[in-house]
Each structure stands twice: as structure tokens, then as C-alpha cells.
Design goal:
Elements (H helix, E strand, L loop, with lengths): L2 H12 L8 H7 L5 H14 L9 E3 L2 E3 L10 E8 L3 E2 L14 E3 L3 E8 L6 E4 L2 H6 L3 H11 L4 E4 L2 H16 L8 E4 H8 L7 H7 L10 H8 L3 H25 L28 E8 L4 E7 L5 E3 L7 H6 L3
Helix pairs in contact: 2-3, 5-6, 9-10
Length: 325
């Protein structure tokens, strides 16, 4: 986003739009197709500049916490795929046990979207009408594999059980080599293990947390895309692209609660302690972190709010010897 546009939007945003211009007015003034597009562009530009939102300043141990993009050597990728339905023959529509011999055409990948964390650009690919009608996803499976092979940490919602396995299956089918190892962050698993949302679907969680939501498109879009309809493929592609953007919003919201998925200390070139979640060295050490047989120094990150402990025991040698279990 150009600095002139950003500065004008930020001036009104910071004042909570008391200066008179709304998102709709600004989108028309700067030639954007809709106010939603302008808001999303502004939000990504704000994150890139390390500027917190109006509601992202919180008090942590008497110090104001703001959320910033911290430079890191780790390449962190968010991604999402859309797959086609399976075509099969059956004798009913309720609780059908479909035999594998009844499958006429198995699923394929229709499109994918991905973005590097805090990058304004969303990369994506979608089948052409001919490829979709021929159920040939080799080209986009290869293009997605290429970008994942560059990543150190990969974030997806239900990525471990769905997206990654589906991609691996199509790589195997097409004779492509395995994607190189990366650290997986699955926001669905984090949601299930850490919280008690009424629904763990991405759309519901984002709505509950006041974050941008998924666009609702019906099954006919997938059906028509399956047959290679160009309009349906374009609509599915746009839907997929939006998923990558709103996944980033959810990841940043959940990031302080993530445990044992990745550790940005491993990508740091400096021999100092940094937050394993966001990479900030703005840590406050206070109190102890106790396990069943050990005590460690405890910290809180003043950038993202994550908590954790030192790797080394905070016990002298004689105390360690005296502990029993």
C-alpha cells in the first residue's frame, strides 16, 4: 500500500473515524473496489509497519504490551487447499456405505493459497477449466510443493490431518518427491487442546474472536468447479485466497498460547534468549516455573504475551540430588 494512502487511512483509523471519513468513503476516494478490500490492505500494511491495532494494547505486569512483527530468520508460511468432491454411484442419500468399486472419480486438489507471515502478497494457484474437467492437478500440486519446500514453519487449520495429508497423497500419485521436513502449527489442534470453543471451525472461531470471517459459498460452486466451469473456479479461488488471509489473523491471536510446536530461538543468530513464539527479546523474568521434579526461571514475552521457562534447571546440584519421586 502506498504511503500516502496508508497515512490518510491511519489518520482516520487512529481517531476511530471521528474525523468524518468512513472506510466506504476512503475506498471510493482511492479507487478501491470495496471498503472491505481497502480495510484488508490497510490491516496488512499496518502489521508490516509494526503498528498495533486500537484494541491490541494490553497491560502486562504494569507494562503496555504492543504486538509487532519481529524479524526472524525462520520462513513461516500459512497455507490452505480446496479439494474436489468424490463422484460415486449410490442407491440413496442417507447414511450410505459406498463401496470403493462405486467410485467413479476420486478427489483432486482444485486450488491452493499461501502467504508468508506478515507479507502483503498472497500466492495462489487454481486449475484451469481444462485441467479441472480432466481432473488433472499435477501442475498446482507441483507449484504448492515448490513453495512448501522453502518453508521452515507451516501454519494451517486442520493442516496435519487434512491439508498436508491430501497434498502428500497427490504428490505420491504424481510421482513427486516428498516435501522437505518443516515444523507444523495446526490452529485446529491448538483450538481443541487449549480452549473450549462451541465450534472449532475456522469461520466460527474468527467470528467469536471478532476477526475477519470466511466467505460463504455453497456446494454448487464445488460441483461446477469439478466440471471445469470457469466462473466457479474463479469464485473458489477467491474463497481460497481469503482463507489464507484470515488464517493469519487467527494464528496471531492464538500465538501466545502455542506450546511445543516451534521455537524461534533455533533460527536466531544471536546467543540471547528470545520468545520462542514471536522472536522478541523483550522478555521479563519473574518467578518460577515448577514441574514435578524441577524448578525453572519463568518469563513472559512483552511483545506477544507468551509465557514459558528457561531450559536449564534453577536448582543447585545438592538440591537436585535431594529430590525424590
Amino acid at each position: 500500500m502506498e504511503n500516502v494512502i496508508f497515512d490518510e487511512c491511519y489518520r482516520h483509523y487512529k481517531s476511530n473515524f471521528t474525523l468524518g471519513k468512513t472506510w466506504e468513503y476512503l475506498s471510493k476516494e482511492f479507487g478501491f473496489a470495496s471498503s472491505e478490500i481497502l480495510r484488508n490492505r490497510f490491516k496488512r500494511a499496518r502489521k508490516q509497519r509494526g503498528i498495533p491495532s486500537r484494541n491490541q494494547s494490553i497491560e502486562v505486569e504494569n507494562k503496555v504490551q504492543t504486538f509487532h512483527s519481529i524479524p526472524t530468520q525462520a520462513k513461516i508460511l500459512l497455507f490452505d487447499i480446496e479439494t474436489s468432491p468424490i463422484m460415486a454411484m449410490c442407491w440413496g442419500i442417507w447414511q450410505q456405505d459406498i463401496n470403493i468399486d462405486a467410485i467413479i472419480q476420486d478427489w483432486t486438489i482444485l486450488s491452493w493459497s499461501a502467504k508468508w507471515l506478515f507479507d502483503d502478497k498472497i500466492q495462489s494457484d487454481v486449475l484451469t477449466s481444462y485441467e479441472a474437467s480432466e481432473h488433472d492437478d499435477f501442475r498446482i500440486v507441483q507449484s504448492l510443493s515448490n513453495i512448501l519446500n522453502q518453508a521452515d514453519i507451516v501454519i494451517a487449520h486442520n493442516g496435519i490431518q487434512f491439508d498436508s495429508k491430501r497434498l502428500n497423497t497427490r504428490c505420491l500419485y504424481h510421482g513427486l518427491p516428498p516435501i522437505k521436513h518443516y515444523q507444523s502449527v495446526d490452529t485446529l489442534i491448538i483450538a481443541k487442546n487449549t480452549f473450549s470453543f462451541t465450534s472449532n471451525k475456522l469461520d466460527y472461531i474468527n467470528r467469536y474472536l471478532g476477526l475477519p470471517e470466511k466467505e460463504n459459498i455453497g456446494f454448487p460452486v464445488w460441483r461446477d468447479a469439478y466440471y471445469g466451469n470457469a466462473d466457479a473456479l474463479n469464485k473458489l479461488h477467491e474463497y481460497n485466497i481469503r482463507d489464507a488471509a484470515i488464517l493469519e489473523d487467527l494464528f496471531l491471536k492464538l500465538r501466545p498460547y502455542i506450546k511445543n510446536c516451534y521455537n524461534l530461538n533455533l533460527w536466531s543468530e544471536d546467543n540471547i534468549s528470545i520468545c520462542p513464539n514471536c522472536g522478541s527479546n523483550d522478555l521479563t523474568w519473574n518467578g518460577n516455573y515448577f514441574t514435578y521434579t524441577g524448578s525453572y526461571k519463568a518469563f513472559r514475552c512483552l511483545n506477544c504475551g507468551a509465557t514459558g521457562r528457561s531450559k536449564q534447571l534453577d536448582l543447585d546440584k545438592e538440591k537436585r540430588k535431594a529430590i525424590v519421586r
